[in-house]
Specification:
By secondary structure, the protein is of the alpha+beta class. It has helices spanning about 15-40, 45-70, 75-85, 90-100, 110-120, 165-180, 190-205, 205-220, 255-260, 260-285, 320-335, 340-345, 350-355, 360-370, 395-400, 400-410, 415-420, 425-440, 450-455; strands at about 125-130, 135, 140-145, 155-160, 225-230, 240-245, 285, 295-300, 310, 315-320, 395, 445.
Length: about 450
């Protein structure tokens, strides 16, 4: 936890202050970028490319350091661009933006207390609140508290003052920053993704939506002992404060996870992936943020008390229409059957697929068959690497190195240019599954995905 002296005393929420800060940084970065480009005019092509990458990295790092000083929604915009921007931003910029996840300095207690007084009024006296946050992010920070009347342990997710009102202006600032630097091509796909990020930002600061979604998922999972969803405590919820029960657990990447017996890790892996499968096949809405900070594991005793996954954050829920879900289900079914002709037939009825020449689809289908390898079987998939799936159809995620193999296959595919900016809906779904895959790789789980999916086919 940061020392109190390292905490921010207040946010720079004035649009004029933020605009000036970003404008100055953008112009300086743009000038440096133009100057570095001019110095390579007589260099060889290889030398030009080397210098171009070096200059872009330096300017991207500089811009990101300036963004990090502002906190608030512009930092969250940068983090979202890092998560999804690999398809339309240069690699040097996404790498720099990824460092924003390490720049979440806490807001000092006096400023947080003032926000709580504004939001909760006299109800604040009902609570004893820890001054040190449990966690900090770009839009809010979380404090643990106890209700004095009955000792109920709760957490308060406290939105930073002014961040919701600053979203649209910060989006414009970020977009203008990229334009001024001239480091990013301005394309229709870029604009579409930018609009999508804007919508996601507005949903994420709407705590009424998050509270309703949390209740919805809690209701769906209430009879399944493998999951814990915090209960919303309405009494202390406002537009900028979300209150829920405090739930104990250990992080997914905690060393204690790997000390668990293999079977317990397998069961946790299956529970993790089953959520993603049910979101597509049953519920039609998905938690699209694969951040490990959104999950904990409450460890059992290995006998009578089972391990449980604690689902913490429902701020990044995305709903999908039935038409899209049908396409996604057909793709998964083709992967289950490991049938290239079926996969080609599944790639239709959606604008992204309908725009692809029919002659290219078989090559793209091969990429999709590889991506759905875990859904296939030893009997129908002769291309399964040796030892990746056992006789019980359990898939070894760590050994498979599936994500890197898919990326390599996609880059060599004749359809690679169609992967450059995939439709945002498929990007969200793939991110969710990548998150689930990573979950299982980190805990070294071996899971029977095929049996799970069979229930819905």
């Amino acid at each position: 936890m940061s020392d109190q002296n390292d905490k921010l005393k207040q946010l720079k929420t004035s649009s004029m202050d933020r605009r000036l800060s970003i404008a100055k940084a953008s112009l300086l970065a743009g000038t440096r970028w133009a100057a570095s480009s001019a110095t390579t005019i007589f260099s060889s092509e290889a030398e030009k490319e080397k210098k171009r990458k070096k200059a872009m990295k330096e300017q991207a790092d500089y811009l990101v350091s300036e963004i990090g000083k502002l906190k608030g929604s512009i930092v969250k915009i940068g983090q979202m661009m890092a998560l999804y921007g690999e398809h339309f931003l240069p690699e040097e910029i996404t790498q720099a933006l990824n460092t924003l996840n390490n720049q979440t300095v806490a807001l000092a207690w006096p400023a947080i207390k003032h926000q709580l007084e504004q939001q909760l009024g006299a109800k604040l006296h009902d609570l004893t609140i820890d001054r040190e946050p449990l966690g900090t992010a770009s839009l809010a920070q979380v404090h643990r508290a106890t209700r004095n009347s009955d000792g109920l342990e709760i957490v308060l997710k406290i939105q930073y003052p002014g961040v919701a009102d600053a979203i649209d202006s910060d989006m414009s600032l970020f977009k203008n920053m990229l334009k001024l630097t001239r480091m990013v091509p301005q394309t229709r796909e870029f604009d579409q993704w930018f609009d999508e990020v804007r919508e996601m930002m507005h949903r994420e600061v709407n705590y009424k939506i998050e509270a309703a979604t949390t209740r919805r998922f809690a209701e769906r999972l209430k009879d399944d002992p493998r999951y814990i969803v915090p209960q919303i405590v309405d009494e202390y919820c406002t537009d900028q404060v979300l209150c829920m029960t405090f739930e104990r657990g250990v992080p997914i990447n905690s060393p204690v996870m790997l000390s668990l017996p293999q079977e317990r890790r397998n069961q946790l892996g299956e529970a993790s992936l089953e959520i993603a499968v049910r979101e597509i096949f049953e519920w039609g809405e998905m938690q699209t943020d694969p951040n490990f900070g959104n999950y904990l594991v409450r460890l059992g005793d290995g006998a009578e008390t089972h391990d449980q996954i604690v689902l913490l954050d429902f701020g990044a829920i995305r709903q999908f229409d039935e038409h899209l879900l049908k396409v996604a289900r057909n793709l998964i079914k083709a992967g289950y059957d490991h049938n290239i002709d079926e996969m080609v037939r599944a790639m239709t009825g959606y604008e992204f697929f309908d725009s692809i020449p029919q002659s290219i689809k078989p090559d793209m289908a091969k990429v999709f068959l590889l991506a759905t390898e875990a859904f296939s079987s030893i009997m129908n998939n002769p291309e399964l690497p040796e030892g990746v799936m056992d006789a019980n159809q359990r898939y070894d995620w760590k050994k498979s190195q599936l994500h890197s193999r898919v990326m390599q296959r996609a880059s060599k595919s004749m359809a690679s240019r169609y992967f450059s900016v995939p439709p945002k809906e498929f990007m969200f779904i793939s991110r969710k599954f990548i998150g689930a895959y990573t979950f299982m790789t980190v805990i070294d789980a071996k899971t029977n995905v095929r049996k799970m999916v069979a229930n819905f086919l």
